[in-house]
Each structure stands twice: as C-alpha cells, then as structure tokens.
Write a structure and sequence with these properties.
The complex is a heterodimer. Chain A is mainly α. Chain A has three helices and no strands. The chains are: A mainly alpha, B mainly alpha.
Chain lengths: ~60, ~180
C-alpha cells in the first residue's frame, strides 16, 4: 500500500495531475481510512475535499 | 480550420467550445472526408461525455465509431468504443460496458489508449468481486500506460490497486457465518 501511495505522491509532485485527480487521491485515502476504522484520519481527509468531488470510477468532468 | 480549433479546444479542456466548434465543423465537413468526420465526432462525443450528457455522447461516439471503422482510423475507433463502454457503465449497464471494453481490447493489441479499457474492466471486476481478474487487468493497464504515459490514467489505476489491496486483506479476514452460536 505504501508503494502505491508513494507512486501517487510522485505523480502529484511531477504536477501532471488535474485538480479532480488530486481530489480523488484524498477521497481514496479517506475511504481506506474508514475501512480500517481510523475515523480521525478520515475526517481530516474529508474536510480537505471539495464539493465537486465525484468518486465514480468511470466518471470525470 | 474548425477541425483544428476543435482539437485545440479539447486539448485545453474547454469543453463548451469543443462542443460548439465540433458541431459547426461537422456541418461543414464533406461526407467523403471520413477521417475528419470521425475525429470531429469523437471530439464531440468526448466533450459531451465529460460534461455528463450521456445520450448526446452515445450518439456522437456511435457516429465516430462508424466513420472511424469505415476509414480505418484505429485511434478514433478504439477511443469511441471505450467511451461507449463508459456511457454504459455510468448508466449502470455493466455487462454491456464490459462488452465494449472487450471489443476494444480484441481489436487493439498494444495501443496506449487501451490502458483505459483495461482500467475500466478492472473496475467492473472489482464491482463483481472478481479480485484476481481485477488485479490482472490493472497490471495490463499499467503496462500499456508505460507507452502512453498518461498520468491521470496511471493515478486512477493506482487508486483502484489500493482499493483492491484493501479488499484482498478484508476478504482474508472475513469468516463465513456458520450459525453455530445461534439458539
């Protein structure tokens, strides 16, 4: 899991990701935090999300 | 000129302008010019899809599919098929969506745009709890994306990998309910 998010951080640093894709990384981290019962981390991540966030895997606009 | 402006507008992410220019250009392009027609219809379909206009996207993408097939424009053909799959997926027609993705994969070989088809197939397998098939499709998506280098597709693939890894851990922890404690 660390390796996956390491790659995602690298992509973010390179600066090639649109804002919505960056938001989806936060959304995924929040979802995984909820799955492991880490409510504090999930709340912190959700607080950073925008109202435009769309987690549908097939949809981006 | 309108065709080039339509391409430029889509590259810049200006979707309303892409729709406007593509529609106008499609009215002007000669019927015999299938290459331009297929690219304009594709631009239009993608712009509609990105703005959530699914029915209009389906119509334009079907037009792109037919004209691209007729003139042998492989890029437009595969892209149209993949996004027709996404139109179905967004509607919840997952089996139809899988059919489009598989058709694209069968037609395409080692083409970078097919990374999207493999990613979307992985998402469907994830929905259906076919986790091993999901993993295989994600690896294929990452392999193909190495040639195309699209960061957004790469990020989407990693995110699904993270969810898959988490789901695999959950399924190992899960124990079937035996009912032995009841009564």
């Amino acid at each position: 899991m660390e390796a996956i998010f390491g790659e995602l951080r690298r992509l973010e640093k390179v600066g090639e990701l649109p804002e919505l894709a960056r938001q989806r990384i936060l959304d995924c981290q929040a979802e995984l935090a909820l799955r492991r019962g880490d409510l504090e981390t999930a709340r912190s991540l959700i607080d950073q999300a925008t109202s435009r966030l769309d987690a549908h895997p097939f949809y981006r606009s | 000129m309108l065709t080039a402006q339509s391409n430029l507008a889509r590259t810049r992410g200006d979707l309303p302008r892409t729709i406007d220019l593509s529609r106008r250009a499609l009215e002007c392009v000669p019927e015999s010019d299938l290459i331009d027609h297929s690219l304009l219809a594709l631009n239009l379909g993608l712009a509609y899809w990105h703005t959530g206009q699914n029915d209009a996207a389906e119509k334009a993408l079907s037009d792109a599919q037919q004209t691209a097939q007729a003139c042998g424009n492989a890029y437009a053909l595969l892209t149209a098929i993949i996004f027709l799959g996404r139109v179905q997926a967004v509607r919840g027609e997952l089996r139809q969506a899988a059919g489009f993705y598989r058709t694209a994969v069968q037609k395409g070989g080692q083409v970078p745009i097919l990374a999207i088809a493999h990613h979307d197939l992985a998402a469907l397998y994830y929905e259906w709890n076919k986790l091993e098939a999901c993993r295989v499709e994600l690896e294929l998506a990452l392999d193909l994306n190495r040639y195309g280098g699209n960061a957004e597709i790469q990020a989407a693939t990693y995110l699904l990998q993270a969810r898959l890894e988490c789901a695999c851990k959950d399924s190992r922890r899960w124990k079937p309910y035996s009912g032995s404690s009841a009564g």
